[in-house]
Amino acid sequence: MKNVIIIGGGVTGVLSAWELARAGHAVTLVEARSLGSGSSSRSAAGIRAQFGLPSTVRGLVYAERFYAGWTERFPQSQPCFKQNGYLFLKDYAADPGAVRETVELQRAAGLAEVELLDKAEVDRRWPFLDTTGVAAATWCPRDGFLFPAIIYQDGAEAARALGAAIIQNDPVVGAEMSGGQAAAVRLSSGRRIEGEVFVNATGFLANATSKLFGGRELPVKVERRYLYFLAGLQADSEWGLDLGEFPRLPMIVTPTGAYARPENAQLMMGRLQFARPAAPTLDNQDEVEPGFGLGLGEYGPAVRKDIAQVLPAVEDMGRLTAVTTGFYDTTPDHNPLFGYDGKIENLVHAVGLSGHGLMHAPFSALIVAQLVGRGRDVASLELPFGLGPVDLGIYALDRVFTQSEGMVI
Fold it and tell me: Nearest CA to 103 among 87, 86, 88, 115?
């Protein structure tokens, strides 16, 4: 068993701490602020297994089962997963053969519930949608969205109960090296913590953390994402959406990459876009850039208009109430990075989740535990629930970026 130091107290770091602690390792998790204070608390919180690579599909099927059984693993907690489903609408520009092949791939990888629907079936199941221009859709009722605070707070408590130490509000400011390996980290408080293995789970700060150790430059770029909140229905919509049905809306993804789902009494909306901040830090996560606010001609109303084209009941909802923002740590192929640094022999990176960190976290924690336990990079991982092996080569640090994940929102 090893003395493991995890840097980063988001969901990836917290569930990795729990997974390592239950395997018998001595674990210390260090978070610069409070738990979840980075992207985990600013996420759209969606979870789906509808991905484009078999290993990711299998890993996310595992993650969905993990979250669905959350209170069985953590009996002192409460449910963290609402399975409203994900509905990906496809227009006539989408290659129907490619869509069918993706669904077949997903089913073969263990996502038995995913369906390919034609326009008539979409109209039958969701008559309140405007399917003008929609040719087909993919639908999976096992997908949905998560409650992040439950996961990182109660997951941390469970890790503590297994002996893990959780340090908050004390950032790592330096590392001590010995013969090509990290020996200890220094915290801003002056505290020094020795370890045998160090895990970088710092998300958009991944490269800054690697640099502290003298590690490699990671192929990670930081992008800013925005979420907009619309006052929800106050009465049944003239467009056929009932007030009682609103909380059960799936995550709806339009052909243009806009998406919406219920968030309590509001509608959460977003749209795929790539805004790269000059110098992302923990202090500027919440800065709304010019043009991305709620005013006329800004991004918020444009997203609302995009959603209204497929969900006309938006016209019966209230005003835009808020905008939130945060960072994604993205890679060139939108697949994460897991593995030993190479320059620093005992530094493990678990970063580059490309906006999928929250949904991926149970799978990520299994990978981290495997890396730490074996003390080297590993080619494959056998998943629980009889889901079979996954190829970890697609997440390797030195991979050639050829197998791009196309289903990114």
Answer: 115
Q: To the nearest 10°, the Cα dihedral for 241, 245, 248, 250?
A: -10
Tell me the two tokens of residue 341.
């640094």
- CA 235 to each of CA 29, 141, 231, 249, 304: distance values in angstroms, whole numbers, following the listed order: 47, 26, 12, 15, 19
Q: Yes or no: say if 152 and 35 are a contact pair by the CB < 8 Å rule.
A: yes
pTM above 0.85, yes or no: yes
- What residue ranges define each of the domains in the chain, with the CATH number in brackets? 3-66+148-220+332-395 (3.50.50.60), 84-143+222-327 (3.30.9.10)
Q: Which pLDDT value is given to residue 279? A: 84
3-state secondary structure 9-62: CCHHHHHHHHHHHHCCCEEEEECCCCCCCCHHHHCCCEECCCCCCHHHHHHHHH
Q: Which of 57, 61, 47, 64 is nearest to 106 (CA)?
A: 57
CA dist 390 and 383 (Å) reads 7
180: left (phi over 0), alpha (psi -120 to 50) or beta: left
Is 68 strand, coil or helix?
helix
The tokens for 95 are 């290659």
Cβ–Cβ under 8 Å, residues 103 and 118? no
In the predicted structure, residue 408 carries a pLDDT above the cut 80 = no
